[in-house]
Amino acid sequence: MVKSRSLHLLFTGWCHCRYSLSVFNVGIGLDLSVGVEGVLPSLARPANASRIFHGIVFDAGSTGTRIHVYTFIQKDPELPLLEKETFQSVKPGLSAYADTPETAGETVRQLLRVAKKAVPHVEWERTPVVLRATAGLRLLPPKKAQALLDEVEVAFEESPFFVPDNSVHIMNGTDEGILAWVTVNFLTGQLQAKTKKTVGTLDLGGASTQITFLPKFKTIESAPPDHIARFDLLSTTYELYTHSCTDTHQTDSSLERKVFESSCLSRKFREDWSFGGLTYKISGIPDGSTGFTECYKEMLKVVKGVIHQPPELQDSNTFYAFSYYFDIAVEAGLIDERRGGMVKVQDYSIRAKEVCNKLSMYLATKPFLCMDITYITCLLKDGFGFKDETILKLTQKVNNVETSWALGAIFDYFQNIKIH
Ligand SMILES: Nc1nc2c(ncn2[C@@H]2O[C@H](COP(=O)(O)OP(=O)(O)O)[C@@H](O)[C@H]2O)c(=O)[nH]1
Ligand SMILES: [Ca+2]
């Protein structure tokens, strides 16, 4: 089976983008202490809160479904802490069951068992459970996506947990970006500190990507007004720049071809790949040129000119990057899987050159690494406009909590942060 993030991209093409820009006001100081993992605002407490309460978030991603069970502890009347997260994931994502939606229900039931173990029996009926689906379901025909969501809802209703209104839905890319930013800035203590110092976030999923950061005034001024998303959290109004792209299916008839050749693949590489109901023959270009320069040109075609480049990114170095940025850096040997680490944008490009210029060495074990790492290099440099020297913090977890929009989503549930 073909496993490549960028291959999917090349078939679907960039991109349905939405840029958003928001303004940040330091509002009322956050009277919160930072626990080991962070704190929730007092408003986040459900009525009749006991010392400990929980929230369950399902992330129905394009490549997998994940459950996050959060345990919050009420340390004193005002300051609940995020005590721990229980996390589990399964592959493939729900969109793989578009023609057998009942299997989606089974996936969810299976993961709900994790929640039953993590949440004490007496807490079940007041513990909310929500599911947010991302690019995989956004790309399905609406009827097929709805059939999957209906099955999820049935599984939720059968469960002993509390199913709020609108518990199961497809989330838009802007919410995905904002909620991931909320998660990372909460886990790193930035939201609790009474300063404007925050970190930006970069998420690269199986079929979409988000960049979110607190912009400088110049960026705010120069961006079109409709690129603004605003939300309220902890008595503060935030306005962030957030830009989300979901790969979209092209109707271009050239994509109906069943052969896909790429200079990012070894000349000897051949594999069948099923996507969108068709089976494609994926291969290197038998008598064509391969290597980094050619591969980069291919990636430029889908990245260049499509993504807005805020000038301030050129001297920025406070971005956390996760999901495929992390996975590909691990695969490329740039970071250790358990510890994560810092990389410069140029580290991706140096490694991309090494891998792409020795494709035969990677043919058996990592045939798509050249394509994936070149894609990331191109997205960062020619897509967003980052400089070679920009440092990214690659993180899968902060204080043992997944860097995912899921924590931001449970904040949104408890606090109603009203992203608009
Ligand atoms: N460890 C971990 N990895 C994640 C999480 N969410 C996404 N990922 C990674 O991100 C990759 C693709 O993201 P996915 O959510 O499936 O695609 P999307 O629907 O386009 O956002 C996956 O293969 C995972 O490696 C998470 O909560 N925890
Ligand atoms: Ca995701």
TrEMBL record:
GO terms for cellular component: endoplasmic reticulum; extracellular region. Its EC number is 3.6.1.6. The keyword NADP does not apply. It catalyses: a ribonucleoside 5'-diphosphate + H2O = a ribonucleoside 5'-phosphate + phosphate + H(+); ADP + H2O = AMP + phosphate + H(+); GDP + H2O = GMP + phosphate + H(+); CDP + H2O = CMP + phosphate + H(+). One of its GO terms (molecular function) is ATP binding. ATP binds at residues 206-210. Belongs to the GDA1/CD39 NTPase family. Hydrolyzes nucleoside diphosphates with a preference for GDP, IDP and UDP compared to ADP and CDP. In the lumen of the endoplasmic reticulum, hydrolyzes UDP that acts as an end-product feedback inhibitor of the UDP-Glc:glycoprotein glucosyltransferases. UMP can be transported back by an UDP-sugar antiporter to the cytosol where it is consumed to regenerate UDP-glucose. Therefore, it positively regulates protein reglucosylation by clearing UDP from the ER lumen and by promoting the regeneration of UDP-glucose. This is nucleoside diphosphate phosphatase. It comes from Denticeps clupeoides. The gene is entpd5b.
